[in-house]
Amino acid sequence: KNGEMATLEIPAQYLPGEFVLRLDYKENEFSQPYPSEKNIYVYNQNLQLWIHPLYSNNPDSTYFQPRERENTVFLQFAKENAVRKESLGVLQSFLLKYDKPTSKLYKYGSREYEQRRNEYNRWIDEQVQANAGLFVSTVFRFQHVPQVSWKGTEEDRLNSRIEHYFDGMSFQDTMMLKTREMNDWMNQYVNLFGAKVTSIDLRDSMFTAAGRFAIEKVKSGHPRVYGWMVDYFYRGYESFNIEKGIKMLEPYLNDPNCLTKKREAINKRIAGMESLQPGTIAPDFILNDVGGKAISFHDFPTEKKNKLVLFWSADCGHCQELMKKLYPWFTQEGIQSKLDVIALSLDESETEIEAWNKAVPNLTGFHHQLTQGGINSAEANAYFVLATPVMVLVNSFTNEIIAIPESVEKLEKALK
Q1: For residues 160-182, average pLDDT
Q2: What's the confidence (pLDDT) of residue 275?
Q3: Contact 165, 146 (CB under 8 A)
Q4: Which of 180, 368, 371 lies closest to 285, judged by CA?
């Protein structure tokens, strides 16, 4: 402001890293603030940045001190990379769309692509080596273009991309874990398997295979990178409730070289999968009846044959999607006479509880209860719940688990 300087100190544990510098600029005291953001890389060099908020990404109005390296080198790399990759992209587009893969032109194009791909990857390697002391050199590695076999079917090409996806990457470099590109790069890898998915069962098999292949590729690298990869797939499996994938992770938890941060959570989830099976007795817990009297779940008064324990959060996107299908299905003729729904909310913060209070009046017919402790509540721990939503269908008279359905369709099937 008026040429003044502000000093920001970043704690060492967050370095190196990419940061978003946000400024809320007001032209005068009474005007609305104008949000302005600039991405910056910070490592082992103090930065001095001159910035005009209205033009935060314009080099004429925003610039670093002379001899600043991380951001200057990255900007130079990005400009040249865009030019080099454009010509490669033109060839790739031609090879993907051309309808005569046996023609001389196509064969010539595939040879030209491979030559340029090798040249491009050599340039990437040179940039990484020339800037080895900079954090951004780690970011450069994610631009590596893997090998593709242009012979055969579209599926053959896809399999070739998967097989060579990890070529050119150094998994000894723990700095890659400090980049946002690492997560984006892995999402692109998983999407290759997603392109093969045509059903829920196939999805579970494909994503489990994706995890096993990726983890095996990195397990000889740095233990922290190895552990990060296990954690990455665990988060995905937990989000989509892919039990097959979670079970696949178990052997890696016993490897001392795997520095996973999710070891306890994964072990807990596996224990839950093994103990919460159809035919076993559902864990008991305390809930309040309509009059506010404390009763046990096992003694829940009902003449309906089934009880559905639903762990959910009104502030959870996946839960909202489930409720859009579950509640209309529940209100259909003949369903309510077969089923009691005990909806245990894991909402905990003020914002979440406010959302829950607004949602409950629109879900009449459910028995609602707000747990104490959210995801760490006694109820969630008893059912090994680590993410929402979770449904457990229980026989009302024997308290045996009938099914743990992942969708309304599977719940309906189990109810029949």
Answers
A1: 94
A2: 83
A3: yes
A4: 371
Those residues whose C-beta lies under 8 Å from the C-beta of residue 324, and which sit 6 or more positions away, are none
Distance (Å, whole) CA 319 – CA 343: 11
Query: In this structure, are residues 226 and 177 in contact, taking their beta carbons and an 8 Å threshold?
Result: no
CA dist 86 and 90 (Å) reads 6
Q: In three state form, how does the secondary structure of 374-397 look? A: HHHCHHHHHCCCCCCCEEEEEECC
CA-nearest of 316, 331, 333, 320 to 374 is 316
pLDDT in tens, 203-248: 999 999 999 999 999 999 999 999 999 999 999 998 887 889 999 9
Distance between CA atoms of 148 and 162, rounded to whole angstroms? 9
- Residues 40 and 43: their CA atoms lie apart, in Å, by 10
pLDDT of residue 1: 67
**Rg from Cα positions in the chain:** 27
Cα separations in angstroms, 353 against 96, 100, 358, 368: 50, 60, 9, 13
Whether the Cβ atoms of residue 379 and residue 386 lie closer than 8 Å to each other:
no
* CA 118 to chain CA centroid, nearest Å: 31
Extract long-range pairs of 157-165: CB within 8 Å, 24+ residues apart.
158/192, 158/195, 158/196, 161/192, 162/189, 162/192, 162/193, 162/213, 165/189, 165/192
For residues 391 and 402, give the distance between their C-alpha atoms in angstroms, rounded to a whole number: 11
The total number of residues shown for the chain amounts to 416
**CA-CA distance, 335 to 348, in Å (whole number)?**
30
Q: Do residues 109 and 98 touch, judged by C-beta distance below 8 A?
A: yes
Token pair recorded at residue 23: 């400024």
What's the whole-number mean pLDDT along residues 185-207? 92
Give residue for tokens 């865009």: 82
Dihedral angle over CA of 82, 87, 91, 93, nearest 10: 40
Q: pTM to 2 decimals?
A: 0.76
3-state secondary structure of 342: strand
Residue with tokens 């089934």: 306
